[in-house]
């Protein structure tokens, strides 16, 4: 178990782990004494690194529409023909959703769109959100590829950061060129916007080496927030018949990532969240509404019934203050 303690010491000293060290931690058998120690150590490190603070990541899916990119895990793919009734949220609806989240202490408000949504339009919506919704919160975009011009406009409009990822098996399970995804991540980093990037979408098909490589790639762009998101099997998509990773495995991955990020990554997000994952080193969880690529419906309420009150309680049960 010495290598777990060595990983803890490096985390506390701000030293990122190497690929081999990350893989060694990911290879720990689930449920073993080493696994239990790993999670305890990661939770203790999380409390020290975050000051015991937990945050809620709220997301508004602005458009429920078929996407020509046809990523094999995404319900929006036009080829899968799963979207029968398109929905486009108005500016007023988006502002209302944001206001509801902020009133319940959401730290981050993510405006999520399909690949070809107008980014200038999204920027104009942000200006109105800033006028109408007061509070201590950050606005994050989760949208298409970005160049430096757009990234700089986002900074000027009051956007705080961007969620973007070069996803697992990018270019294989997706039609995207991995270079394009990484270039956007680099543009976000260069613009001064916060970069948020999770290892995702993780399924039982992904190897420890793939997970380690993906996280180390994220580290290159100084992501402020990282973590892990499970691939949710959506019936009717090409990967819809491959089962989801277990909650315990997702929690273990969270523990490893918590110890791997040195001083680059302070906060670790998990989605979907469980108490197990939050007690294994994650301190951010997600509440989302609207268009959700992990489902075949446009949610007027919150995905899987997880609302702000439930999220707050889950974080508090895990020992975090909101």
Global shape: globular
Strand content: 15-25%
State the end-to-end distance: 33 Å
Q: Please state the structural category.
A: alpha/beta
Describe the biggest sheet? 10 strands, mixed
The protein's oligomeric status is single chain
Listing every helix as H and every strand as E from the N terminus to the C terminus, the arrangement reads: HHHEEEHEHEHEHEEHEHEHEEH
Give the integer mean of the pLDDT values. 96
The number of distinct helices, counting runs of at least 4 residues, comes to 11
How many β-strand stretches?
12
> What proportion of the residues is helical, as a percent range?
40-55%
Low-confidence stretches: none
- Taking Cα atoms only, what radius of gyration do you get, to the nearest Å? 19 Å
Question: Short summary of the structure?
Answer:
Helix 1 (2-13) runs parallel beside helix 3 (33-50), helix 2 (19-26) crosses helix 8 and helix 4 packs across helix 5 (119-132).
Topology:
Elements: H1 2-13, H2 19-26, H3 33-50, E1 55-61, E2 63-64, E3 87-88, H4 91-103, E4 108-112, H5 119-132, E5 138-142, H6 148-157, E6 161-163, H7 178-191, E7 194-196, E8 199-202, H8 208-220, E9 225-230, H9 247-260, E10 267-271, H10 275-278, E11 284-291, E12 298-299, H11 308-317
Parallel strand pairs: 1-4, 1-11, 4-5, 5-6, 6-7, 8-9, 9-10, 10-11
Antiparallel strand pairs: 2-3, 11-12
Helix pairs in contact: 1-3, 2-8, 3-9, 4-5, 5-6, 6-7
Question: What do these coordinates show?
Answer:
- The structure is a single chain.
- This protein is α/β, with parallel strands linked by helices and 322 residues long.
- The chain is 40% helix and 16% strand.
- The chain has 11 helices and 12 strands.
- The chain has helices at 2-13, 19-26, 33-50, 91-103, 119-132, 148-157, 178-191, 208-220, 247-260, 275-278, 308-317; strands spanning 55-61, 63-64, 87-88, 108-112, 138-142, 161-163, 194-196, 199-202, 225-230, 267-271, 284-291, 298-299.
- The strands form 2 sheets. Strands 1, 4, 5, 6, 7, 8, 9, 10, 11 and 12 form a 10-stranded mixed β-sheet that branches.
- Strand 4 (108-112), helix 5 and strand 5 form a beta-alpha-beta unit.
- Helix 5 (119-132) runs parallel beside helix 6.
- The longest helix is centred in the N-terminal third of the chain and has 18 residues, at 33-50.
- The two termini are 33 Å apart.
- 44% of the residues are buried.
């Amino acid at each position: 178990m010495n290598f777990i303690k060595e990983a803890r010491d490096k985390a506390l000293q701000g030293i990122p782990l190497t690929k081999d060290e990350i893989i060694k931690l990911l290879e720990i058998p689930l449920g073993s004494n080493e696994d239990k120690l790993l999670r305890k150590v990661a939770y203790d490190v999380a409390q020290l690194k975050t000051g015991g603070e937990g945050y809620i990541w709220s997301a508004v899916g602005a458009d429920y529409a078929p996407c020509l990119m046809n990523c094999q895990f995404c319900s929006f793919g036009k080829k899968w023909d799963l979207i029968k009734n398109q929905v486009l949220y108005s500016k007023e609806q988006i502002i209302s959703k944001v206001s509801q989240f902020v009133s319940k202490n959401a730290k981050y408000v993510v405006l999520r769109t399909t690949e070809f949504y107008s980014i200038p339009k999204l920027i104009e919506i942000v200006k109105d959100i800033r006028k109408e919704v007061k509070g201590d919160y950050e606005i994050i975009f989760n949208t298409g590829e970005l160049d430096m011009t757009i990234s700089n406009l986002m900074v000027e409009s009051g956007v705080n950061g961007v969620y973007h990822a070069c996803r697992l098996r990018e270019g294989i399970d997706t039609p995207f060129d991995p270079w394009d995804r990484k270039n956007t991540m680099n543009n976000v980093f260069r613009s001064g916007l916060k970069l948020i990037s999770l290892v995702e979408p993780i399924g039982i098909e992904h190897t420890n080496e793939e997970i380690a490589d993906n996280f180390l790639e994220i580290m290159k762009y100084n992501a402020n927030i990282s973590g892990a998101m499970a691939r949710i099997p959506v019936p009717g998509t090409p990967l819809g018949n491959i089962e989801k990773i277990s909650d315990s495995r997702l929690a273990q991955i969270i523990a490893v990532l918590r110890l791997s990020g040195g001083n680059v990554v302070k906060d670790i997000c998990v989605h979907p969240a469980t108490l197990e994952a939050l007690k294994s080193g994650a301190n951010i969880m997600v509440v989302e509404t609207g268009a959700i690529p992990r489902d075949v419906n446009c949610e007027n309420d919150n995905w899987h019934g997880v609302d702000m009150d439930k999220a707050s309680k889950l974080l508090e049960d895990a020992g975090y203050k909101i």
